[in-house]
Amino acid sequence: MIYLNRHTVPNLTLKQLNRISPSKYFSLQACILREVWSADNQTKGLLPVAPIIKIGTVAHKVLELAAKGLVKTEEDAVKQWDIGVKATEEEMNSSWLEKHLLPLSKKARYYEVKRQQCLIMVRSILGRGSGKGIIRPSSIKVEVWVESSNGKVAGKIDVVRQTSEGVQIVDYKTGAVLEINADADEIKLEYQLQLKIYAALYNEKYGNWPEHLVILTLGHKEYEIPFTKKECKNLLEKASARLDEVNAMIASAHSVKELANPTPDNCRYCTFRPACEVYWTTRDLTGLWPIDCYGRVIDLKVLNNGSLRVTINNGSDNVVIRGLDPKRHEGFQYNASEVFFYNLNVDSVSGYYTESLLTTCYCK
Prior knowledge:
The protein is α+β, with helices and mostly antiparallel strands. Among the domains are: 4-11 and 271-363, CATH 2.40.50.140; 48-125. 35% of the residues lie in helices and 23% in strands. The protein contains ten helices and twelve strands. It has helices at residues 22-30, 32-39, 51-67, 74-93, 104-107, 111-125, 189-206, 229-252, 264-268, 277-282; strands at 4-5, 140-147, 154-163, 166-173, 212-217, 222-224, 293-302, 308-313, 318-324, 332-334, 339-346, 352-363. The strands form three sheets. It has a five-stranded mixed beta sheet. Strands 7-8-9-12-11 form a five-stranded mixed beta barrel. A hairpin with a 5-residue loop joins strand 11 and strand 12 (352-363). The longest helix has 24 residues, at 229-252. It is globular. The protein starts with a strand and ends with a strand. Mean pLDDT is 89; it is low at 1-5 and 130-135.
C-alpha cells in the first residue's frame, strides 16, 4: 500500500461582497472566483506565497509607522522591523503550508536588500534623507479611509501628503511596479486604476481633487500617474457597478465554476488553484501555465539521500517528481486515489519534475 500526504482541499463556499477596494477592482475583472474567496476573512490561501512577499508586508508596516510618527529614529525602525518579522514568522510556523519557509532572513530573496531599502526610506520619511520623496509627518495623513457615497467602494490611502502644489495621494509599493516587457517605464495597469479610484473617493469625501497621484517604491523611486477627473469618476462608477454585477452572479451561480476565469496569467500566482476544478479542465501543456501536475500514484520511493521520489500516472503518461523533502511532506498516512502537486520545477528530463520552495501536495 502506498501512503500519501493527508492534506486535502477544504470545501470553499461563496459569499457576497460587502464592498470592493480600489486595489481589488482590477483583480475582479480578471477572475471573480479568486477575489470572492480571497475577500472572505475566514478563507485562507491554499498555497504558500513567496517569502519576499511576506517581507514586503513587514516593510510596508514599518513605513506606515514612520509616516505616523511612531518611528522616530532608525533604531526604532530596526526594532519595528524585527518585531514585524518575528510576528510574521510565528504565524507562518503555525501553518503546514509555510513553516518550511523559515527563517525569512535565509529563505526570502534579497532579504537584506529590502531591509536596507526600508531603513533608507524611513530616513527619508524622518527628513534625514536626500533627494525628492521626503515625507515629513507634520505634512501628511496616514491610512486615510475613503468611501463612496453609496458605501460600495472603499479603502485606505497609504499617505495623503500636503504640498505647496496641493494634495498628493501616495501609495507605497514594496514590489515591482512596472509592466514586464514594456517599451518604457509603464506603471502596471492595476496600480494606475487603484490610484485613480482613490482620487475619486478622496474627492467624494473631501470635496476637492488631489493634484498628484504618486507611487513610492522601496528603492526610493517616485512614479507619477497622470489622470483626469472624468476618468477617475468613470472608474469609480464602474467599480460600484461591478460590485452589483458580481453579487448578482454569486446569487445566481449554480456552481463555483461559473465564476472562474482560468488563464495562465490569472492562475500563475493564484493560491486557490487547489480548490478550482475548472482550472484543471482548462489548462494545457503549452508551458504557459503554472507547473502543476496530478495523477494516480503508482510508485513511492525513499532515495539514498533521504528525499522522496513519487511516480504518478495522469491517465496517459507517467510523471516523476523527485527530490521531495519528507519533512515538508510529512504525514504520509492517507491512502488517496489521486494526488495534486503545485509549484514544481521542470527537471532536465522530459516528464520529470523537482520540488521548488513553494511545492505543495494535496490528496483526493
